[in-house]
Amino acid sequence: MVAINIETEDGQKEALRRMLTIRAFDTKAGELFGDGELPGFVHLYIGEEAVGVGACAALEEDDYITSTHRGHGHCIAKGLDLERMMAELYGKANGYCNGKGGSMHIADVDAGMLGANGIVGAGPPLATGAALTSQVKGEDTVALAFFGDGAVAQGQIHEAINLAATWNLPAVFLVENNQFGEGTPVEKQHNLQNLSETAEAYNIPGFTVDGMDVTAVFEAVKEARKRAVDREGPTFIEADTYRYRGHFEGDQQPYRTDEDIDLWKENDAIESFKERLIDAGTITESEFEEMEADISAQVEEAAKNAKEADYPDPNEAYDDMFNATVPEIDGFAQQMRTDGGEDR
Amino acid sequence: MSTESAPSSGPSQTEEMTVREAIRLAMREELDRDDDVFVIGEDVGEFGGVFEVTSGLVDEYGEDRIRDTPISEAGFMGAAVGAAATGTRPVVEIMFADFLGVCSEQIINQMAKNRYMFGGKTEMPVTVRTTEGGGMGAASQHSGTLHTWFAHFPGIIAVAPGTPRAAKGLLKSAIRSDDPVFVFENKAMYEQTGEVPLDEDYTIPLGTAKVEREGDDVTVVATQRLVGESLDLADELAGETSVEVIDLRSLYPLDTDTLVESVNKTGRLVIADESPLSYGTHAEVATRVMENAFFSLDAPIQRVGVADVHIPFSPALEEEVLPDADDVKAAIDRIV
């Protein structure tokens, strides 16, 4: 469930479904965190759903994405499984990373999801690398890097874009401008009117789209993807969006008011897309409610199952460091065991 | 040096060549063997690398596989990590180990943690070649020996060849490994010559040390340039003191068994490694031996390394801080 054609009615309904799923999943994750159910930190994607869904809808199944610490939405948009995601948030054995990654590090390389990332700006070089693989192997896959407005101040993203532009790699750089780098407004971080002006320095196309409009994001990424596979090089897209929740759950948000948030909610991505689809007769109100109820049930089920799932065996803390090609030399090499071992 | 066109050479066939040639031969063989292997770094193409290690490769394999980068260590190290995660096998050249700090985010948080953090579902077949060491008047930012940093950091395999043969065998194993492997080449060794197996399948298992010369009175565990110097010293001392010389070769994993076996025989240990003494390679080797062969020790373990200073410019100062055979001899004299 990756590429969808938003130009068709089924595609539009699927896009709406994915956005609703992200919101339901992250709403539930926020509740669970607030209830003390989840360890660690949780960074929610609520408000930004149109960006992840619009972008991934325009990608093919074999394409790659890199993500941020706000990655749940990207995972769902790329088609990852809710049960295994929720289990990972709980640190359970059946999670995507067997409980070793948690909320900030969900990955599924087979699905083209190269990993959420706890380091701001670290993803774009990885996407450049995935695009390099595509070029070296002569494949038609594309790599898209999601990153935040805060990352635009990081040196490594500029190195990554410069490499991709210089080598004409099939990459798409998509900055989700949610208006804040952690707790600091974007205008205090960059001397730019639009972050997409960054593209000028690398002589690649750059433009800003309405990140609250799933169709606009879809169209932009579709065009960028076409350029990439046509060997015309990378594209830089800025999607203007807004996160409704704090940087992390529990953030007191002294940097903005409820009124600021309400202003953006008037243009909510899910509400406005739903209204468009109802006006066009693509979906009825009751079909929408049915969809919402169905998603809610799936998320509740995933949360319930995750809560009941087993934690990993503590000995698994020593697994997965290396591939088994390293010979076992001595006791220290226990750390290199990948076979689940019996004598620890 | 003929290689890719040579009919399969028997395992016993060797040829005398320099460390530089041995490394180039290893890369050429692996580039021939596997289309997914590519070389990436600053000036590795037409320029041939500042130490001429990749010289000529771009003519044979083209710019796609011998890929010149901008001066952009964080960018291309990150790209190598992303490329490795998606099915290729990059061999990254970092011109001087001192520059590893520039791209340490991509090494520490991405490359080294990828497999573990994602529950063992990813592979990270990336090789990083870099140069270490002083002796060229290159001053502090181009002379450091940093391998302890990376040998210390979980998720990275770190090797440091002490002979031309080891340079070839270890690099080939590194390129074939599905884990991140750092190969620390001592730049003062590039001209050092020795017999190197021509067998295209000659590899050295990562995590193994090698007894280069057997002896009875004292074990010298050395790395890189100090292996050769210690072997020459052992020749000099023959008849007077019987010195066993081990090329440590692999910093992580560490071949404790070989070290312990040697110390059980000799009862004395000198550790010679051109890196700062505190908290480093010497300390790890000493601890492993203490843990496993304490009662075989007849004398205190001796460390030969760099005092905790940076490498200075002036020849008079540089010579003072760099360890050499005289320092190894002094260490032996203290305990034998």
Automatic annotation (TrEMBL), chain A:
GO biological process, one term: pyruvate decarboxylation to acetyl-CoA
Organism name: Haladaptatus paucihalophilus DX253
Keywords from the named record: Oxidoreductase, Thiamine pyrophosphate
Gene3D superfamilies: 3.40.50.970
Molecular-function GO terms, alphabetical: pyruvate dehydrogenase (acetyl-transferring) activity
CDD domains, alphabetized: TPP_E1_PDC_ADC_BCADC
Required co-factors: thiamine diphosphate
Ranges of residues in domain Dehydrogenase E1 component: 17-314
Keyword Iron-sulfur: no
Designated name of the protein: 2-oxoacid dehydrogenase E1 component alpha subunit
Membrane-spanning intervals of the chain: none
Coiled-coil parts of chain: none
Pfam family, one: E1_dh
Keyword Transmembrane: no
From TrEMBL, chain B:
InterPro entries named in the record: THDP-binding, Transketo_C/PFOR_II, Transketolase-like_Pyr-bd, Transketolase_C
Cofactor(s) listed in the protein's UniProt record: thiamine diphosphate
Keyword field: Oxidoreductase, Pyruvate, Thiamine pyrophosphate
Any one biological process term the GO annotation gives: sulfur compound biosynthetic process
Region forming the signal peptide: none
Gene3D superfamilies reported in the protein's UniProt record: 3.40.50.920, 3.40.50.970
SUPFAM superfamilies: Thiamin diphosphate-binding fold (THDP-binding) (SSF52518), TK C-terminal domain-like (SSF52922)
Keyword Oxidoreductase (UniProt): yes
Record-annotated Transketolase-like pyrimidine-binding domain positions: 17-192
Pfam family, one: Transket_pyr
GO molecular function, one term: oxidoreductase activity
Oxidoreductase keyword on record: yes
Protein name listed in UniProt: 2-oxoacid dehydrogenase E1 component beta subunit
Taxonomic source organism: Haladaptatus paucihalophilus DX253
